[in-house]
Specification:
The protein is of the alpha/beta class. It folds into two domains: about 230 residues, no CATH class; about 170 residues, no CATH class. Helix content is about 50%, strand content about 15%. The strands form three sheets. Strands 1, 2, 3, 4, 5 and 6 form a six-stranded mixed beta sheet that branches. The longest helix is centred in the N-terminal third of the chain and has 21 residues. The chain is globular and about 70 Å long. About 50% of the residues are buried.
Length: about 400
């Protein structure tokens, strides 16, 4: 699935309103250079962003050239994730080549690790794949059994310490230990296995990198806010914690299991979505979670996570989110005034044919909804002058964050 097909699918995730739609002056998404959006990150230690950026009016699609193959990345947030993960890979490669690491591997009878093209899984990956004591030991065993379907740690790897080393490495690098980025996943596996087999501590391994882990890579928001449980708990333990928290919010068990067993959310995503729902304390969180569980790709899942995180972070600006509500095929929210709130953290809104058609759909759904007062669009997108005018004519209140 190539870029234009993918961004069309991403737009289909989105919108539907129901007010009279005025005649529209359609725009063409202008050509853009990656440097306009990536700045000095256009190149890095192990990547180069191709100059041309594909756009559909909602999303920007970047193409990354790396030693591990070419990768298409939908959206600025996903680009930030990928570049952070590539920096992490660079740090892992430097670590694996350090004298301390090589000696530890030799002592354990292991061959030196190989990076670069040895981590290639496909020549091109497209975006169709659009986170002590006796009592604690027993709790851990119970969690592994009860949440077996949600566990993303292999049983053997857990027993020999590889999973723990993997999580510790990811913690130090500021990345998701269960990232869908295959080169990073394989790199973490290889280094974690070597750390466990070579009887090295993760801290000792990082000390071999000039400047240490802190200067090797910058942490992400997830690493800063949710890092400790992600480092210290297995994926099954995270799932057990998330299930407990969601049940306390009144979410049905079936909805929780659909969310936890989705192939497209990592434990970091599970924690982040749950934390956002807890912060919001809105009615019917299961309505949102049911939509989130139907994610059809990792890109879709990340978008749903970004939506609920934005609602939690900007609830006051949106009129205080009080409840979730299904409107047609879409999951929206109601604020304290009873206004419908649609939160869509796009890259941009340019009034292309695709964007206009998407808003036609959401307009139709909102028109059929009860209490269809002037709706609020909450977004971080850059909105073109034409799109701003058309949205205003259609009755949207635009809240930027």
């Amino acid at each position: 699935m190539r870029a234009r097909t993918v961004i069309a699918a991403c737009a289909a995730i989105v919108l539907t309103l129901g007010l009279p739609v005025p005649a529209r002056a359609l725009e063409q998404a202008p050509e853009a250079q990656a440097k306009s959006f990536a700045g000095d990150r256009i190149t890095g230690p192990n990547w180069e962003i191709k100059p041309q950026v594909a756009r559909d009016g909602f999303s920007r699609v970047f193409t990354l050239k790396t030693p591990y193959g070419e990768f298409e990345v939908v959206g600025q947030r996903r680009l930030d994730d990928r570049l952070n993960e590539l920096r992490a890979l660079d740090a892992l490669e430097k670590m694996s080549k350090s004298e301390m690491f090589v000696k530890a591997l030799a002592k354990a009878g292991l061959a030196p690790l190989r990076f670069g093209r040895d981590l290639i899984t496909n020549p091109i990956e497209t975006t169709e794949n659009l986170f002590a004591g006796v009592a604690n030991v027993f709790d851990r065993a119970a969690a592994e059994i009860d949440q077996a379907n949600a566990s993303k740690d292999g049983t053997f790897e857990s027993l020999v310490g590889v999973s723990k080393a993997r999580r510790a490495l990811a913690f130090e690098l500021g990345v998701d230990a269960y990232s869908d980025f295959k080169p990073l996943s394989r790199g973490l596996d290889d280094v974690a296995g070597a750390v466990a087999a070579g009887d090295l501590s993760v801290r000792a391994a990082f000390s071999a990198i000039s400047g240490g882990a802190g200067t090797a890579i910058s942490g992400t928001a997830t690493a800063n806010q949710l890092s400790t449980p992600l480092r210290d708990k297995s994926s099954a333990e995270i799932a057990a914690q998330v299930e407990t928290d969601l049940l306390a919010m009144g979410v049905a068990g079936a909805e929780i299991q659909s969310f936890l067993t989705s192939d497209f959310y990592s434990p970091a995503d599970h924690l982040a979505v749950t934390a956002a729902l807890k912060t919001l304390d809105a009615k019917d969180p299961g309505t949102f979670l049911s939509r989130a569980a139907r994610a059809r790709s990792v890109d879709d899942a990340k978008f749903q996570r970004a939506r609920v995180e934005a609602m939690a972070a900007h609830s006051a600006k949106l009129g205080t989110v009080k409840a979730f509500e299904s409107v047609g095929d879409y999951t929206l929210a109601r604020n304290a005034k009873g206004e419908l709130v649609a939160v869509f953290p796009f890259d941009e809104i340019i009034w292309t044919e695709q964007v206009a058609g998407s808003f036609d759909k959401i307009n139709t759904a909102i028109a059929a909804a009860p209490q269809n007062a002037k709706p609020i669009l909450g977004t971080s997108a850059e909105i073109s002058t034409e799109a701003n005018a058309m949205l205003t004519k259609q009755g949207w209140q635009i809240v930027k964050f």
